Amino acid sequence: MNNLSENILSVENLKMYFPVTRGLLRKKVADVKAVDDVSFHIQRDETLGLVGESGCGKTTVGRCIMRLYEPNEGKVIFEGDDILTYSPAQVRGARSQIAMIFQDPYSSLDPRQNAGNIVGEPLKIHRMVKTPAEYKDRLEELFAIVGLDPGMKNRFPHEFSGGQRQRIGIARALACEPSLIICDEPISALDVSIQAQIINLLQELQDRLKGLSYLFIAHDLSVVRHISDRVAVMYLGRIMEITDSQTLYKNPLHPYTKALLSAVPIADPAVEKNREHIILQGEVPSPMNPPEGCAFHPRCPMAAPECKKITPELRSIDNKHEVACLRV
Amino acid sequence: MSVLLDVKNLTTQFNTEAGIVKAVNDVSFQLNEQEIIGLVGESGCGKSVSQLSVMQLISAPGKITNGEVNFEGRNLLDYESNSDEMRAIRGGKIAMIFQEPMTSLNPTLTIGRQLTEMLELHLNMTKEAARERAVELLKQVGISGAESRLDDYPHNFSGGMRQRVMIAIGLSCNPRILIADEPTTALDVTTQAQLLELMKDMVSKYNASLVIVTHNLGVVARYAHRIYIMYAGNIVESGTTEEIFANPQHPYTKGLLKCIPRLDEEKGRKLVPIEGLPPNLINMKSSCAFAPRCSERLERCLTEAAPPLRDIGNGHYVGCFEK
Ligand SMILES: Nc1ncnc2c1ncn2[C@@H]1O[C@H](COP(=O)(O)OP(=O)(O)OP(=O)(O)O)[C@@H](O)[C@H]1O
Ligand SMILES: Nc1ncnc2c1ncn2[C@@H]1O[C@H](COP(=O)(O)OP(=O)(O)OP(=O)(O)O)[C@@H](O)[C@H]1O
Ligand code: SF4
Ligand SMILES: [Mg+2]
Ligand SMILES: [Mg+2]
């Protein structure tokens, strides 16, 4: 395994259950097991992709790392320290080191603030600059880094296009020179011709700024593979497979990963003709009442009787490939 | 293959305060018997408005200002939108499935009622026969326990299940044409694959033709026989799926193919974005709408009227001076 110093982040056995309450007394009747025993690490300068279908727990993982939620169990070790043990003041400090970019560039920016204030706010909160002149310089630098004209800093969010708004979100995320950015579906709301601009920007930033890692959350497997060094596949709150993005496509081992890959159409009819199309039956079960044993067993083409009883652990196949399946 | 739907020079505009929105601009396309065509383009390029125009579902301030929609020997645009003829066509011979099924299903009626209503209205079925057929349809689209689900309301169904119901309603009157307007965009990929596969099987079973409206080039590569690429209210390129992907000619089509990540790409491939933004379609010039973003632009692209689609052989049409 990788030693600690290489890992900017290591998440260990993370569990986040949301109580479901009913009645006047808000009696707890069940748990939504949004994240159920998730472990992974991210190295310095690395991009880890997190994919999975709607509701599988991707955003919840991101929000636990930001400590926007208080997880039930587990560790979130950032730069060697478990931030789940941090005091509120320490959490605020860590937040200057971990930034987040959100899916919806329309609702994630404060509509009453102009672009300059949105991007500059973290500089003030975390006292990154000392003088107004320094503030102005840094602000203009941030605009330039993400390819926005600094002359637009007095405009309000509604005066920008979707792609430009996402650039504002990225500039704000970069303000405190974070070492980790959690990108939660940063391009899903954008047109395809604009998506490429943002993907390239994120990659260029990583090349240019030293020591920047991404946790890249998305449901589009093609995009995730493109931008990530390694990819983790989630299903119903659990990680089913983690490997490097080449191996993920060339040698997927988990039946869910195979089905997910197969469901993504490739923009090439010659390739499509010769591909196997695995069509999964049924729908993702509710995380309130996940299936016993392997959570994927009701839909799994490979399921055996033991899959209904035993929950497979994520285990290493080789030093860069982990799978949670009893039959691999 | 004989032509089933022949749309010619369709033009639809919206008269807004900001100016005239040329949403669909002299668009022509054909759909053959038992064919699947794909209509591809980015948000706002006029995909939905073009299909809604075929169904005459355009309301003020929108207006179909020109064109023909030829179907079974008639030009549907000769009929008023609320005429008996158009009512019989809509949901009967031509059915449409929309992106957000919640807006097209009536939330206050049971699924069963919405199905039987169609059958009673279009096929003059009795209540009993309609109910029987409704169960059969729900079974065909893969809804388990169909009998017991007839009395459920749309909100009792998941997004994927609602789209299955929409497909069942679409197929209920044995349509000749099914128009699916981004039917799976809001859904997960595994559900998307299920539904597209279902639609493909169903249109073949019913000998119908299918129009898939999507922004996803992968979807059309997998399912469509022919493709129309739309940009800013115009069709800029069309041809067989093989031809469009193997030999794309329009700079916009080429740009799209270079800017999307592919699942099977080798590590390290660089995406080439299309610079700039799509235009907003208000008070557009008559020159090529893609010219401001085009990497192969010539002087005349900015000054002359937009080039019409030219036949370059193999059923391949391109609207570009360059080619
Ligand atoms: N604050 C909350 N309270 C209760 N349940 C929640 C909360 N946040 C998320 N959940 C539930 O936890 C599960 C995981 O949600 P999450 O938002 O993490 O999924 P996701 O993978 O990000 O999905 P999407 O792709 O739709 O964004 C879902 O079932 C969701 O309904
Ligand atoms: N009621 C309306 N009033 C004014 N403009 C409209 C109206 N409906 C549509 N438009 C405009 O017509 C153009 C075409 O819209 P249309 O809905 O056909 O796009 P689309 O290609 O289906 O996009 P999407 O992929 O987002 O569904 C857009 O520029 C849109 O703003
Ligand atoms: S453990 Fe069993 S049910 Fe789960 S993925 Fe593997 S084979 Fe399928
Ligand atoms: Mg999410
Ligand atoms: Mg549309």
Task: Name a few traits of the molecule.
heterodimer, A: 328 residues, alpha/beta, Rossmann fold, eight-stranded mixed β-sheet, four-stranded antiparallel β-sheet, 12 strands, 24% strand, globular, B: 323 residues, 12 helices, binds adenosine-5'-triphosphate, binds iron/sulfur cluster, binds magnesium ion
Describe the structure in your own words.
The complex is a heterodimer of chains A (328) and B (323). Chain A has helices at residues 58-65, 88-97, 115-125, 132-145, 162-174, 192-208, 221-227, 245-250, 255-263, 269-273, and strands spanning 7-22, 27-43, 47-51, 73-78, 81-82, 98-101, 180-184, 213-217, 230-235, 238-244, 315-318, 321-323. Chain A has ten helices and twelve strands. Chain A is of the alpha/beta class and 328 residues long. Chain B has 323 residues and is an alpha/beta fold. Chain B has helices at 47-54, 84-89, 101-104, 111-123, 127-140, 146-149, 159-171, 189-205, 217-223, 241-246, 251-259, 299-303; strands at residues 3-16, 19-32, 36-40, 62-71, 74-75, 94-97, 177-181, 209-214, 226-231, 234-240, 310-311, 317-318. In chain B, helix 4 (111-123) packs across helix 5, helix 5 (127-140) packs across helix 7 (159-171) and helix 7 (159-171) runs parallel beside helix 8 (189-205). Chain B has a single domain, classed as P-loop containing nucleotide triphosphate hydrolases (Rossmann fold, 3-Layer(aba) Sandwich), CATH 3.40.50.300. Chain B is built from twelve helices and twelve strands. The complex binds adenosine-5'-triphosphate (ATP) (2 copies), iron/sulfur cluster (SF4) and magnesium ion (MG) (2 copies).
